Amino acid sequence: MRVAVVTEALGPDARPDQDDAMVQAEAVVAALDALGHAHCSMSFAGDIHALVDEIRRQRIDVVFNLVESVDGRGEVVDLVPAALECAGVPCTGSGAAAMRLAAGKLGTKARLRACSLPTPDWSTSDVTLGEPTGRWVVKSVWEHGSLGLEADCVVEAEDAAQLSREIDVRRTRLGGSAFAERYVHGREFNLGMLASGSGVEHLPVAEISFGGDDSGEPWIVGYRAKWHAGSVEDLATPRCFGLRPEDAPLVTTMRALAEATWREFGLAGYARVDLRVDERGAPWIIDVNTNPCLSPDAGFAAALAEAGIPFSSAIERILGAALYCA
Q: Cα separations (Å) of 218 from 73, 89, 148, 221?
């Protein structure tokens, strides 16, 4: 099988979260070598015709899609799978419709709410769902990887007008678009899923440890925590497995929610759903990740290792799912 590993074309001023795509590509290429698959690397700068022509010229059987944005814009992340679907070329991960739905967090939350899946209330500069007072976390609508997100994005609002101002003042640092989500001060979990035949296999549940500090300070996994290794924020938010036996009912509930999200969003190949659990023990979906990061030090690879699944085996299953769905 001949595989093209496609990443976004990056300039010299790329951010750490963008550069990480190259780390993922190196890991995928190493796995393809171990599996005995022929491969080549391609960079995508937005010209879909050039990409499709090159794929056809090199007689590619399947594309391993690692494009997370185009020219730094997360809102067009579905461009590559959409083009490949039109060209009839199998592509790993979720298809264009699912990626488009999950790329924008407002659309994601609206779909979750429409499917009766729990997600916190949200607010834009114009409309607020729920009571506007209380604690909110201001996030980017389109950018992933916690771009611009830090503890100071958790705000206390007295009314809708103040909340709207808090959103507007952070818009630029959050990639140009922002909204507010009701802040859930509680435990945070990452639930990875991997295609298994015609279904899905749940990977071990990871919890982000906030060190037991319940002083009321915001618990946030921000940009520095994710991309500045060794920073105070990184060291304060370690990932851990091996939940307590009394968490078993919670894990069952969260896995059911994650699988329902997989089904309702039409996810494929691999994915991750992030949840917060409030003080009453109720889980809330806060993020849906199509094609989550595959870097060796990232959460998905850690969950694979915890499950005893070799990274190369996971890559083979992701490729198989792409061919099965084509």
A: 28, 45, 15, 10
CB 34 within 8 A of CB 312: yes
Indicate the number of domains in the chain: 3
> For residue 168, what are the CA distances in angstroms to 64, 82, 130, 278, 286?
37, 32, 19, 27, 21
Tell whether 129 and 112 lie within a shared domain: no
Closest CA to 146 of 256, 287, 315, 324: 287
Radius of gyration (C-alpha) of the chain in whole angstroms? 19
Identify whether residues 145 and 238 lie together within a single domain: no
Q: Return the closest-CA partner of residue 312 out of 13, 5, 28, 19.
A: 28
Q: Are residues 279 and 143 in the same domain?
A: no
Q: With a threshold of 0.90, does the pTM exceed it? A: yes
d(CA 268, CA 260): 13
Same domain assignment for residues 9 and 47:
yes
Write out 29-51 in H/E/C secondary structure: HHHHHHHCCEEEEEEECCCHHHH
CATH number at residue 8: 3.40.50.2300
Check: CB of residue 85 under 8 Å from CB of residue 96: yes
146-163: buried (b, 16+ CB within 10 Å) or exposed (e) per residue? Answer: bbbbbeebbbebeebeeb
My answer on whether 203 and 295 are in the same domain is yes
Domain that includes residue 32, residue range: 2-93
Answer whether residue 182 shows pLDDT above 80.
Answer: yes
Supply the DSSP string of 266-277, one letter for each residue: T--SEEEEEEEE
Predicted confidence (pLDDT) per residue in 28-62, tens digit: 999 999 999 999 999 999 999 999 999 999 999 99
DSSP alpha helix (H) spans, the chain: 16-35, 48-57, 79-87, 96-103, 105-114, 160-169, 223-227, 232-235, 248-265, 299-307, 311-325
